[in-house]
Design a protein that fits this description.
InterPro entries: Aminotrans_V_dom (IPR000192), Aminotrans_V_PyrdxlP_BS (IPR020578), PyrdxlP-dep_Trfase (IPR015424), PyrdxlP-dep_Trfase_major (IPR015421), PyrdxlP-dep_Trfase_small (IPR015422), SP_NH2Trfase/AEP_transaminase (IPR024169)
Number of domains: 2
Cofactor: pyridoxal 5'-phosphate
Structural class: alpha/beta
Order of helices and strands: EHHEHEHEHEEEHEHEEHHHHEHEEHH
Number of strands: 13
Radius of gyration: 21 Å
Pfam families: Aminotran_5 (PF00266)
Oligomer: single chain
GO molecular function, one term: L-serine-pyruvate transaminase activity
Family: Belongs to the class-V pyridoxal-phosphate-dependent aminotransferase family.
CATH topology of the largest domain: Aspartate Aminotransferase, domain 2
Distance between the termini: 33 Å
């Protein structure tokens, strides 16, 4: 019998049945009044989710496309920018910025460690000429399972006066990102993460200070020109043909999220993160990110005495549970357990139980049968 595929990766994430059914509806014209009504509703829902009264623009793109738009619309070739790099995606934004002719300075930390806000403060305070135009930060570094201290870094950026451009691809909808309260200028995310949708939509929240920079930014842009999206969003339409059925799905997903409530969404993700981490410790599996810096979207594990790729292979072949592997230099060294989006407590217990069985099959000496499930269940029962 074919088993039900269980996605325990940081994206794409599981999609609720009601959202999938919305995708199956017959398309409507994207210049119709019906679409305009949906556009107005989802825009209001996105502002709620982003905790902002300012623009949240919808692109037909992945999270990388949203980040590219978030960089090229507000900067000019030669601008000096700081980019936090402590994983694959921080590195990607540095490479992207360099590709558009920006003067990039990396603020680095070892993969698996959080960025040090003091490194940003030191560089920003030394810039008395105010040459630094923007700071680009990955909030949840998916490749390592680390959550960077965005709030503190942002305070230093605000004291300097530069723009802050945030990759919130796996943090938005999983942990608190109060855009207006913190005064974040540009925040990018993607549909296949905490939004509980398939891949296909990118989102960019833009504040007033960023729009001021837009007026003088000189990097060429056309399809990703956010000014066009802003102008058309004010009329509940889009500048180019959107994936109409994804808007149907977004409408349903946002209603689900609003019914659960922001605080409950954040609490669920943190509860499942803590349960997963407790299970890994109980099974004798070393965690890659330290307590206090771990992402509520994904847990990275660096096993010793058993190969991570063998764990992933058995989990997939025997239980049809997909875990993520390591990327770049971490390939073959870690595996990653996603708990992002449409994931329930039962999914955590199922994945941990299957992992226990996998470790036993692979002859891992550190496993005590039932220890992982018991540790996860204790956390889930205490905080549910």
């Amino acid at each position: 019998m074919d088993n039900k595929l269980m996605l325990m990766i940081p994206g794409p994430t599981p999609v609720p049945e009601s959202v999938l059914l919305a995708l199956a509806k017959h398309p409507i014209g994207h210049r119709s009044g019906e679409f305009g009504t949906i556009m107005a509703e989802v825009t209001a829902g996105l502002k709620w989710l982003h905790q902002t009264e300012n623009d949240v623009l919808i692109l037909t793109a992945s999270g990388t496309g949203a980040m590219e738009a978030g960089i090229i619309n507000f900067l000019s070739p030669g601008d000096r920018v700081l980019v936090g790099t402590n994983g694959k995606f921080g590195d990607r934004w540095a490479q992207l910025a360099e590709g558009f002719g920006l003067n990039v300075e990396r603020v680095t930390a070892e993969w698996g460690k959080a960025l040090d806000p003091e490194d940003f403060r030191t560089r920003l305070e030394a810039d008395t000429a105010k040459d630094i135009k923007a700071v680009i930060v990955t909030h949840s570094e998916t490749s390592t399972g680390v959550l960077n201290d965005l709030e503190t870094i942002n305070r230093h950026v605000k004291a300097h006066g530069a723009l802050i451009i945030v990759d919130a691809v796996t943090s938005l909808g999983a942990t608190n990102v109060p855009i207006d309260e913190w005064g974040l200028d540009v925040v990018a995310s993607g549909s296949q993460k905490g939004f509980m949708l398939p891949p296909g939509l990118g989102f960019v929240a833009v504040g007033p200070k960023a729009w001021e920079a837009y007026a003088t930014a000189k990097i060429p842009r056309f399809y990703l020109d956010l000014g066009k999206y802003r102008k058309d969003a004010a009329k509940n339409t889009t500048p180019f043909t959107p994936p109409v059925n994804m808007f149907f799905a977004l409408q349903v997903a946002l209603k689900m999220m609003q019914a659960e409530g922001l605080e409950n969404i954040f609490a669920r993700h943190h509860r499942q993160m803590n349960a997963t981490r407790a299970a890994m410790k109980a099974l004798g599996l070393p965690l890659f990110a330290a307590d206090g810096t771990s992402s509520p979207a994904i847990t990275a594990v660096a096993p010793v005495g058993v190969e991570s790729e063998k764990i992933r292979s058995v989990m997939k072949k025997k239980f049809d549970i997909a875990l993520a592997g390591g990327q770049d230099d971490l390939k073959g060294k870690i595996f990653r357990v996603g708990h992002l989006g449409f994931v329930c407590d039962r999914d955590i217990l199922t994945a941990v139980g299957a992992l226990e069985a996998t470790l036993i099959e692979l002859g891992y000496d550190g496993v005590t049968p039932g220890a992982g499930v018991a540790a996860a269940a204790k956390i889930l029962n205490e905080t549910a």
